[in-house]
Design goal:
Blueprint lengths: L1 H9 L9 E6 L1 E5 L5 E6 L2 E2 L4 E2 L1 E6 L15 E3 H4 L9 H22 L2 H13 L14 E6 L2 E2 L4 H14 L3 E6 L6 E5 L42 H16 L4 E4 L2 E7 L8 H5 L3 H12 L12 E9 L2 E10 L1 H15 L14 H6 L11 H12 L5 H14 L4 H14 L3 H4 L10 H20 L6 H11 L5 H18 L1 H14 L10 H18 L15
Parallel strand pairs: 2-8
Antiparallel strand pairs: 1-6, 2-3, 4-5, 7-8, 8-9, 10-11, 12-13, 13-14, 14-15
Helix pairs in contact: 1-6, 3-4, 8-9, 9-11, 9-13, 12-13, 12-16, 12-19, 13-19, 15-16, 15-17, 15-18, 15-19, 17-18
């Protein structure tokens, strides 16, 4: 199904011709119709750091270009086109490459009988030594030909010749079979040529989306790509469409080692890229209002929104998940996603939606530690509305224990997970909830109050109570809170001597946060509630002074 949707998407794209690909071209050899060189033109583009080749559709052998000598028609590197030896090449091999390239030009000129191609053949026969090669030329650069103002690789006859020649010479296709995508009986593709690039962690030369190179993957006596037969046109269209999605900033997100691509069946203004990558609060509000004001949910129509999660495994692409949904369904689920995520720093603060990347990386010390499945799970939940798994909650809670603290990003992640699993918590946990009597939540609040009392009583201690006791308080409250409360009494006594009003306020918070009982142990979800209780209460202490409740004696 993924391949079919990619082929459908390719119909909207201006794709290169068959067995063409977008390559960097650095130089043009300019000829007249007699094959006389007019110069070697530098068409590189300066990007501010260095000169790069101009991206242009040209003949390509994709991943067939390995160690064997295989010339590419009228567009190749200096070894093939000029016989120039690069630093890492042997002269004998380069000579063979050059001869093979000239032979291919002669074959094309004889078969097509086009004046422009014959001019290139005459150039090699009579005028090759007249070409002035610039001093700054590098033999690794790619060169093509222009004759009488015409790029030869743009000629339809040349494109057709290359497609037929390459398919035959390199045995790209084999016996006819019913194509899995279009259903037409055509010669099936033995190897899928278009390499997928742009996925972190994979080979720079590209990776194969469809690959069979072991007996374990073969069946019914079929080998190579014939086990999943595709005609050459569908194979190229699917993989070129995927390459386009990965290169377009509006149709993909790169999160660590994961690339998530999405597209719609028809042209659409809807794209979730900004909402997931850098959500603007006003845009999120508009999404929520549009969904809330929308018509009642109707029966699902034909899917028109598609998404695929990809990561790399050496030379292969790993398809981690593939989704087919409708655009209204995705919009509703995205609105719900931001509702799950709502978490105010203070009661007077407004919610700040976070990107998927900030949520996904929050349990890890650095982005490189984040497994690809973490952002994939988050985006899949955002698109489909499925609850997030406990494994993510476990990662966030472990990170809290390591840091002995609850960051804003991890608090958001925990809130999102808990709200996705229990919709009744969506509104309850947006900010400090003094009505919530859950023992785990109140234990978290209580730890924040105890920490605050210590802080204002003795200034800025080198190690707070939280630094020492967060891990045990968040897992086995009954074992530590008796000790913590006894340690708090001297701090309150000291505070009453200097600021009685503040002491009264904090003592009132202490009694309000006190649970009816201290649980012996806390489950995973209860540890999540503990973390939010701690975060909510601590945030309340540090909100702007004008928004806090002040007792008459506090500023005395």
């Amino acid at each position: 199904m993924l391949l079919q949707r990619l082929v459908e998407y390719s119909q909207r794209l201006a794709l290169p011709p068959s067995l063409y690909a977008l390559v960097q071209i650095h130089r043009l050899i300019d000829l007249d119709l007699q094959g006389m060189p007019q110069g070697m033109i530098d068409i590189r583009v300066d990007d501010g750091k260095r000169k790069r080749g101009r991206i242009y559709p040209a003949p390509s052998l994709g991943n067939l270009r390995t160690s064997k000598i295989a010339p590419v028609l009228l567009c190749d590197n200096g070894g093939y086109v000029l016989g120039k030896v690069a630093a890492d090449k042997k002269a004998e091999r380069v000579h063979s490459q050059h001869e093979a390239f000239k032979q291919l030009v002669r074959e094309c000129a004889t078969q097509l009988n086009l004046p422009e191609v014959q001019a290139v053949a005459r150039f090699y026969e009579h005028h090759f030594k007249k070409l002035q090669v610039p001093d700054d030329y590098d033999a690794s650069e790619t060169i093509t030909f222009r004759v009488n103002g015409q790029w030869l690789i743009d000629l339809p006859a040349v494109q057709q010749f290359w497609a037929e020649y390459a398919a035959r010479a390199h045995e790209i296709t084999g016996e006819p079979a019913e194509c899995m995508v279009c259903g037409v009986v055509k010669p099936a593709t033995r190897i899928h040529l278009v390499p997928t690039k742009g996925i972190p962690g994979g080979q720079s030369s590209g990776m194969a989306l469809i690959s069979v190179n072991s007996d374990a993957f073969e069946s019914y006596g079929l080998k190579s790509g014939f086990v999943a037969p595709l005609c050459l046109d569908c194979s190229e269209r699917a993989l070129k469409a995927l390459d386009t999605l990965i290169r377009d900033e509006n149709t993909h997100l790169t999160l660590g080692n994961l690339v998530y691509c999405f597209w719609t069946r028809e042209e659409s203004q809807f794209s979730p890229t900004r909402l997931l990558d850098n959500p603007d609060p006003q845009e999120v509000k508009r999404l929520l209002k549009s969904v809330q004001a929308g018509k009642p949910r109707a029966a699902l129509s034909e899917p028109d929104f598609y998404a695929v999660a990809l990561s790399a495994n050496s030379a292969r692409v790993v398809v981690r998940s593939y989704l087919e949904l409708t655009v209204p369904e995705v919009q509703r689920n995205l609105a719900q996603w931001f509702e799950w995520q709502r978490l105010k720093r203070t009661s007077s603060d407004d919610d700040t939606p976070l990107s998927v990347f900030r949520l996904a990386v929050s349990p890890y010390r650095k982005a490189e530690e984040m497994p690809p499945y973490v952002p994939e799970i988050l985006i899949r939940s955002a698109f489909t509305g499925v609850p997030l798994p406990d494994s993510l909650l476990q990662s966030a809670i472990q990170a809290n224990r390591r840091a002995q603290a609850v960051s804003y990003e991890r608090a958001k992640l925990i809130k999102t997970i808990l709200a996705s699993q229990n919709p009744s918590l969506k509104e309850v946990l947006i900010m400090l909830n003094r009505e919530l009597t859950d023992p785990a939540y109140k234990c978290g609040r209580l730890l924040a109050v105890i920490e605050r009392i210590q802080g204002v009583a003795i200034g800025n201690p080198n190690a707070t109570l939280t630094d020492k006791y967060y891990g045990s308080a968040s897992t086995a409250p009954a074992s530590v809170f008796g000790v913590l409360l006894r340690m708090t009494q001297p701090h309150l006594s000291k505070l009453r001597k200097h600021s009685e009003g503040l002491a009264i306020r904090l003592e009132r918070e202490l009694h309000e946060a006190m649970p009816d009982r201290f649980p012996t142990t806390l489950s995973l979800k209860e540890q999540g509630l503990f973390a939010l209780g701690y975060y909510h209460q601590r945030s309340e202490f540090f909100k702007p002074k004008a928004n806090q409740e002040v007792t008459p004696d506090e500023n005395a």
